[in-house]
Amino acid sequence: MKNDHWNLSRARRWKLFDPPARPSHGELDIYRAILSESRISYGARCALLGSTPEIRRLACQNNLELHCVDKDPEVYDQLRELVGEEDRSRFICCDWLEVEHSNRYEIVFADGSMNMLPHSQHKQFLEAVWQLLSPGGRVLMRVHIATEPEFESIEDVFAWARKFISRESIFTSTRTHIDMTYIRGGMLTVDFRDLHARVRELAESHKITKEEYDAYDRLAEFNKISLYYTTKEELRTMVEGMFELKGYRIGGDYTGDKNHPVVVLDKV
Ligand SMILES: C[S@@+](CC[C@H](N)C(=O)[O-])C[C@H]1O[C@@H](n2cnc3c(N)ncnc32)[C@H](O)[C@@H]1O
Question: What is the per-residue pLDDT across 159-216, written as a single tens digit (0 to 9) for each?
């Protein structure tokens, strides 16, 4: 199944999406800190798999020569509005699994990109990233990682979050726990069309509040994608022989952030 619903209409509403869909401030700080630890040269050639505006802005601030690899030029153009005029990134219109730019980049960024692809393509994705990197190159990628669910049902997650007054949006405080509950014992895939339908059913049977329903329903029209979670064990096995896994870094600023770490991989 292809994730063709990551499209122009979703890009136009990108500001409506809160973490973990978008990288949080804490996660952007992690990207920033790793970049400064990595002692990247001025104007270093880097690639971004996708068009994530937050990473494009980061690249400008760090004087990186950024090449965005994305199959959808409309999404790339639309998201430029969120980067601002300083966006000097270049666009490569290509599927990540077909890109032919061997040994060219010091850093490859990917923000949730691998999880856009079905599990059967995750290893292939990592091989493509390996190909892109110059010797000694580094990957900074936010990965959506599955863990054991802490709640029995989606309804229970809403009830738990309702008990404390949070500075977070309803979406941010519930999304990760809902995802873990949804994929319980299954294929690690969240089909958001189905998830939104389940939230709607809860609202219709008055098991969640109107405000909780609205927090999800306002996104439903633009959230027709699937997200393919992985696990730390799977990732460790997939990168073996290609990368040294340097660590998982957590944003530290929202509920569920431990499931969306920035992973650092060095090419071997
Ligand atoms: C990086 S991903 C995910 C961004 C965000 N963190 C999220 O979770 O929704 C979104 C981008 O990936 C692009 N994309 C998805 N699959 C792709 C593929 N196989 N090849 C190239 N671009 C792809 C889409 O066009 C879109 O611009």
Answer: 999 998 788 999 999 999 999 999 988 899 999 999 999 999 999 999 999 999 999 9
- Positive or negative torsion for Cα 43, 44, 50, 56: negative
Ligand 1, atom 6, residue with closest C-alpha: 112
> Which residues touch 4 (CB under 8 Å, ≥6 apart)?
none
Atom of ligand 1 nearest to the CA of 22: 6
* CA gap 139, 263 in Å, rounded: 8
CB 59 within 8 A of CB 105: no
Name residue 69's beta-bridge partners: 49, 92
Write down the pLDDT at residue 254: 97
Q: Does 249 contact ligand 1 (Cβ within 6 A)?
A: no
Look up residue 232 and give its amino acid. Answer: K
Q: How many other C-beta atoms lie within 10 A of the C-beta of residue 38? A: 14
pLDDT at 35: 94
What pLDDT sits at residue 41?
A: 84
The structure's pTM equals 0.96
Whether the Cβ atoms of residue 24 and residue 251 lie closer than 8 Å to each other: yes
Kindly give the number of the ligand 1 atom that is closest to the alpha carbon of 112.
6
Q: What residues contact 97, with CB distance under 8 A and at least 6 apart?
A: 117, 121, 124, 125, 128
